[in-house]
Specification:
mainly alpha, Vanadium-containing Chloroperoxidase, domain 1, Vanadium-containing Chloroperoxidase, domain 2, 2 strands
C-alpha cells in the first residue's frame, strides 16, 4: 500500500524529494567543510612557547629585542625541518647530510634547543628538561637519531653564520635636547633601549638602512601641527574626546609585544590545520619579517632621533609652530617606551605581520584573533588591512606616537615583508 502510494507520486513530488535529499547532503558537506578546525599544537608551537619562557619570562628580554631572539629560533627550526621536507629553499643553512626518514619533529626540537641554550646558558637546566620532554614524545630509533643530528647541525651552522652580527653589541647613544630631539621620558626617564638594533645585520635585508623612513614632518609644518594636536587630544591620560572603545584599543597593544604575539601566533597556527613543515615556514616568515622590520625601524629611530609626545606636548611653545600650544601637565594614556618616536615600532611590526599573512595565504582575507592580557579582551580581524589601520590609531590613543609615525612605520613593515616573501621561503620546482 505504502509502496503503491510512493510509486504513484507525481513527477513534481518525486523531484521535490530528490531536491530535499540533495539539499541535505550539501548542508551536511558544508557543515564539515566550514566547521572550525580543531586547534592542534605541534613541536613548532611547543618550542615557541618554550622559547617565550626562556626569552621573555625568564630572560627578561624587552619588547622588540625579544622578537629578534625569537627569529633566531624559528629560522633554525625552519631550516632543520625544511631540510627534511625539501619543498622550499633554505633560508640560511643546509646540513651536510639528511638521511631518508629523518624525524622533522626531532630536528625542530634539536634546532630550537641548540639556539636557546647558546643564547641563554644560565637556563640550561630548564632547557634540558624541556628538550628531554619534547624528545620523549618521539619514538626511539634511526629516524629520531637522524632528526636530532640534522637539527643540531643546522643550529650550529646558523649560529656560526651569525657570529659578529651585532646582537647585544655595546653601542653608545647620547640623547639630545631641545625641540624635535628625543629625550628620556617620564616616569622612569630610562636610558635609550637597545641602540645596537639600529646597527645589527638583519636576517633578510641587505642592511638595516635599506628601507629607511622618509622622515618626520618639519616642526613648522601643518602636518606636524595636525599630528601634535591629534595625539594631544586623543592620547591624553584624562582625554574626554576618546571613546571607551578607543581607550581599550590604546591599552590593548600595551602588553609586552613579543609575549603577546608569541601567544597570538601559536593560537593562530594551531587552528590552521597546516602540516609541521608549513607551520615551520609560516612562523619563520612571521619572525624574520617582524624582526627585520623592527631592525629597520630602529635604524630610522636612531637616525632621526625624534621626540615623543610626552616631551613635545609639554614643550609645545618651543617648536616655532603657532598651531601647537603647550600643556605642561600632559601625560599619555600608556607609559611611553624608552626609545625615539619616529617611526612607530609597532607600526613596523604590524605592517610586516599583515603583509606576511597576505603573502603566505595569497589573500588579504585572513581571519586572526588578537588577545591582550592588559585588557583581558580579544579583537578579531578578517582582513589584514584592518590590522594596519587599527595599530596606527592605537598608538595615537595610547599617547606615545603621532599619525605620521604610525603610517610610515607600517610602510616599512610592508616593504620588509614583501622583500622577505620575494627572496626567501620560495618553493623548489
Amino acid at each position: 500500500m505504502l509502496y503503491c502510494r510512493f510509486n504513484h507520486k507525481t513527477a513534481w513530488q518525486r523531484n521535490a524529494g530528490k531536491v530535499l535529499l540533495l539539499r541535505a547532503v550539501v548542508v551536511f558537506a558544508l557543515g564539515i567543510l566550514l566547521s572550525p578546525v580543531t586547534a592542534r599544537a605541534d613541536v613548532v608551537t611547543d618550542w615557541n612557547a618554550i622559547a617565550n619562557t626562556v626569552v621573555v619570562t625568564n630572560g627578561g628580554r624587552p619588547p622588540g629585542v625579544a622578537h629578534v631572539d625569537m627569529a633566531y629560533v624559528h629560522i633554525a627550526i625552519y631550516d632543520a625541518v625544511n631540510a627534511i621536507d625539501g619543498r622550499y629553499s633554505a633560508f640560511a643553512v643546509t646540513p651536510s647530510s639528511v638521511p631518508t626518514g629523518s624525524s622533522p619533529e626531532a630536528a625542530a626540537a634539536a634546532a630550537a634547543y641548540q639556539v636557546l641554550k647558546s643564547f641563554f646558558p644560565a637556563q640550561q637546566t630548564f632547557l634540558a628538561s624541556a628538550y628531554a620532554a619534547s624528545l620523549s614524545t618521539i619514538p626511539d630509533g634511526a629516524a629520531k637519531t637522524n632528526g636530532i643530528a640534522v637539527g643540531t647541525e643546522v643550529a650550529t651552522l646558523f649560529l656560526a653564520l651569525r657570529t659578529g652580527d651585532g646582537r647585544n653589541a655595546s653601542i653608545t647613544y647620547t640623547p639630545g635636547s631641545g625641540p624635535g630631539e628625543w629625550q628620556p621620558t617620564p616616569p622612569v626617564f630610562g636610558a635609550p633601549l637597545a641602540p645596537w638594533m639600529a646597527y645589527m645585520r638583519p636576517f633578510a635585508l641587505l642592511d638595516s638602512s635599506q628601507f629607511r623612513a622618509e622622515g618626520p614632518p618639519a616642526l613648522d609644518s601643518a602636518q606636524w601641527a595636525a599630528d601634535y594636536n591629534e595625539t594631544k587630544r586623543f592620547g591624553a591620560l584624562n582625554s574626554t574626546s576618546r571613546t571607551p572603545e578607543q581607550t581599550e584599543i590604546g591599552r590593548f597593544y600595551s602588553e609586552h609585544v613579543t609575549a603577546q604575539y608569541n601567544r597570538i601566533f601559536r593560537e593562530f597556527a594551531a587552528i590552521q590545520g597546516l602540516s609541521l613543515a608549513d607551520n615551520a615556514r609560516l612562523l619563520a616568515m612571521l619572525y624574520v619579517a617582524g624582526a627585520d622590520a623592527l631592525i629597520a625601524g630602529w635604524e630610522s629611530k636612531y637616525y632621526y632621533r625624534f621626540w615623543r609626545p610626552v616631551t613635545a606636548i609639554r614643550a609645545g611653545d618651543t617648536d616655532g609652530n603657532p598651531a601647537t600650544e603647550a600643556n605642561l601637565s600632559w601625560s599619555p594614556l600608556v607609559v611611553t617606551p624608552p626609545h625615539p618616536e619616529y617611526p612607530a615600532a609597532h607600526g613596523c611590526f604590524t605592517g610586516a605581520v599583515a603583509e606576511t599573512l597576505r603573502a603566505f595565504f595569497g589573500t588579504k582575507r585572513v581571519t586572526i584573533t588578537l588577545t591582550s592580557t592588559v585588557t583581558g579582551t580579544a579583537r578579531t580581524f578578517h582582513n589584514t588591512d584592518d590590522l594596519i589601520h587599527e595599530i596606527i590609531d592605537a598608538r595615537i590613543f595610547g599617547g606615545m606616537h603621532y599619525r605620521t609615525s604610525g603610517v610610515h612605520g607600517t610602510v616599512i613593515g610592508k616593504k620588509v615583508a614583501k622583500w622577505v616573501a620575494k627572496h626567501y621561503f620560495q618553493p623548489i620546482n
